[in-house]
Amino acid sequence: MKELSQTDPLVRVRDLKIGATTDSGRSVEIIKGVSFDIAPGEIVALIGESGSGKTTIALSMMGHARTGCEIRGGEIEIAGRDVAQMSERARAALRGVDVSYVPQSAAAAFNPSKRILDQVIEISAIHKLMPKAKAEAKAVELFRALKLPDPDTIGSRFPHQVSGGQLQRLAAAMALIGDPKLVIFDEPTTALDVTTQIEVLRAFRSVMELGNIAGIYVSHDLAVVAQIADRIVVLKGGEIQEVGETQMILDAPEHPYTKELLAAFEPVRHEALPISARAEKTPILKVQNLWAGYGPKRNGEPMAKVLRNIDFSLMEGRNLGVIGESGSGKSTLARAIAGILPAYRGDVLIDGHQMPPELAKRRKEDLRQTQIVFQLADTALNPAQSIGAILSRPLAFYHGMKGAQAETRVIELLDMVRLPATLRYRLPGELSGGQKQRVNLARALAAEPRLILCDEITSALDTVVGAAVIELMKELQRELKLSYLFISHDLSTVEAICDDVLVMYKGEVVERMAADKMASDATHPYSRLLISSVPKLDPGWLDGLEQDPELIARFANR
Amino acid sequence: MKTLSNPLLLISHAHHGYAFNKVGRAGLAVIIFWGLIAIFGPLIEPYPPGQIASYDIFTPVSAEHWMGLDYLGHDVFSRVLMGARYTVGIALASVFLACTGGVILGMIAAVAGGLFDMILSRLLDAFNGIPSLLFGLVAVAAVGSSIPVLVLTLAAIYLPGSYRFARALAVNVNTMDFVTVARARGEKTPYLILREIFPNILGPVLADLGLRFVFIVLVLSGLSFLGLGVQPPNADWGALVRENVEGLSLGAPAIIFPCIAIASLTISVNLFIDNLPTKIRDRS
């Protein structure tokens, strides 16, 4: 191994090509000749939509290609050695010591049956780096550096005994134990709540700076990347679109795709539709003192009470956002309104009509008026049915449409959500995430509803794709006079489509306010904490952020 | 596909068709072969199965008797042809009854849940606790051996296992969002189980059917071996093995050929089920 001079890059990637072979034997190029450098101690972000190849490139730094894929050409030099040409044995020696990896879901990456500390120091045992006692001492040092609570004892817990944000930091400790020169972060904060994300980002940044470790940070979230990366590589379709210093990319993007990504961050503010002349007096949806929960019932009350005394109303043609962190009861609210989870106390009135809590007791006509769209389009579409069959079913079920009439309507519905008519012959597995979510929306529209309950429908989509879905929803609202109940943890999306916002915390509505005045009008301390925790497109945001530690202690479940 | 407005579609649909590998084809060929024998066997058998062809016993393969003679001097070739009808017919009928019943009940239990699921599951679990051959012996001995009794007994023995298997699969599918969406639409149980759940558990259910078929052939052979299966002068393959078990020490073809028949059928059913034709769908 040759000595590195100060100016040599730590990572030198030249003309990297990665390909795969499909089931029918067709060869596909995933990465089409990518070149970039990473200097020692520098953090480079790979950003792009899903399928752009960002994770594939990041994994190739360890010489790893996912099943079915292979590195087909080019050089990946890490500290002067070409990983692409290495034997599998040499790559194994490199992993964990020179290059290490922090996965997206730490919860899935930890073995639930082993204590955390034993897993964190595993790398030192595999590579015989140091005696066990020394490794344990080092791990505790890392826990302290990552600002974990009780650094001396947290290692003796099991993975389910710590929070999601803590587990993600512990995964970072696991990656750092072997003193790597390069750490790969694969969307490490995507699954975390915003208030938790801040602490994790701060911890990552401080240990990386302290150890002068280089990093690759894979993400689709520009605002998060802006806080941690020195340089940004924008990818699309397996090719580099643009490379630049973080500030430059944010201020003066050159490539149209980068501009699109940035534009998706500046949502077009929602303008309320003029309410129809007949000035509706009855709201389309009214929820009164609603209580709902899960588990076996005792004295008519379930063991786990999730929703407590929810009270709100939504006028026709208006959109109501529901924000809050995971576990706040947002999705349960949508389920209780739709009757999927029967509420045990309180009333749901749709267009002034009282709904029975149980789904089975509701009339078909009432069910038709309220449709629900779920977050994960993958699981919300039956993988065994063609798109045409999926869309025809509500037509037959609610409207009795069959044959050619139904087919014409399916084509119309696909057109409404801007999808080509030929798509109806395909299975859901053959569609992209954004297409699936549009089909999902089309299925709800097939019922000709007046109210659509949207449960995090853009959260699993790429920024640009999600923004397009939101635009589509606004258009549909204008054409079809719909009302939306829009559940999301993403405040900028809510701002883009909603008139009003409910803030939920632990199953209660803590505040209701106008969506365009969230930043200024929020009075409840939890709303303020939540709103201030959303990353901004400003590299200095995280440093400048000051939050009341008492508030954090009270509300954030870090 | 009538129109191809999208050029991407052209690429992805150019490869469409069914992929069916050689192992699967071989398995299917053997199954079809035995199926044809079961139907047309009696037309080509050289001797009636009950007729004693010669006073020689356990003779080796000869031009006149392709599979030799058995312990009474029957022509074994004729008897194997005749046995195909019983083995393939009874086993197929039982396995379809067992799996259809088990899968439908399993899906209903998964969708309905609650008390119905609990009672049905415990009942069938209790039933599952009875050793299968013992149950078969008692049932057949009590009612008397006839083909409908055999089919129903074998189906009853294998239904609880099929139920458990299908219920476990259906419970997983039942929690998926698309089923929730269908429920929220107001769909009733028959639609939920047939359109939403069944297509998504079909693969494993077929694999289970193949395995269960083999077990049924073996239990039927076992019952015949004990004299409670198909009654003489007719015989299924298991009965042929039992009749000629003394010939084992003589290496008589009379015992080898029925064994080969059982093995070839059960193995090829599994090869076929494990290598079903798959539609090639290429994401692009």
Automatic annotation (TrEMBL), chain A:
Cross-referenced CDD domains: ABC_NikE_OppD_transporters (cd03257)
Entries under PROSITE patterns matching the protein: ABC_TRANSPORTER_1, ABC_TRANSPORTER_2
Keywords: ATP-binding, Nucleotide-binding, Transport
CC per GO annotation: plasma membrane
Top-level division of the source organism's lineage: Bacteria
GO molecular function per UniProt: ATP binding; ATP hydrolysis activity
Subcellular location, record wording: Cell inner membrane
Limits of the ABC transporter domain: 11-262, 285-531
Membrane topology qualifier: Peripheral membrane protein
Family annotation (Gene3D superfamilies): P-loop containing nucleotide triphosphate hydrolases
A biological-process GO annotation: transmembrane transport
Chief location of this protein within or outside the cell: membrane
Transmembrane segments: none
InterPro entries: AAA+_ATPase, ABC_transp_ATP-bind, ABC_transporter-like_ATP-bd, ABC_transporter-like_CS, Oligopep_ABC_C, P-loop_NTPase
Family under the similarity heading: Belongs to the ABC transporter superfamily.
Name of the protein this chain belongs to: ABC transporter
UniProtKB/TrEMBL annotation, chain B:
Cell compartment(s), UniProt: Cell membrane
Main location: membrane
Alphabetical list of SUPFAM superfamilies matching this protein: MetI-like (SSF161098)
Domain of life: Bacteria
GO CC entries: DNA-directed RNA polymerase complex; plasma membrane
Biological process annotations from GO: transmembrane transport
Membrane topology: Multi-pass membrane protein
Gene3D superfamilies: MetI-like (1.10.3720.10)
Transmembrane segments: 26-44, 88-113, 133-159, 209-230, 250-273
CDD domains with a match to the protein in the record: TM_PBP2
Residue span(s) of domain ABC transmembrane type-1: 84-273
UniProt entry keywords in alphabetical sequence: Cell membrane, DNA-directed RNA polymerase, Membrane, Transcription, Transmembrane, Transmembrane helix, Transport
Family: Belongs to the binding-protein-dependent transport system permease family.
PANTHER family in alphabetical order: OLIGOPEPTIDE TRANSPORT SYSTEM PERMEASE PROTEIN APPC (PTHR43386), PEPTIDE ABC TRANSPORTER PERMEASE PROTEIN (PTHR43386:SF25)
Protein name listed in UniProt: DNA-directed RNA polymerase subunit alpha
Source taxonomy: Bacteria, Pseudomonadati, Pseudomonadota, Alphaproteobacteria, Rhodobacterales
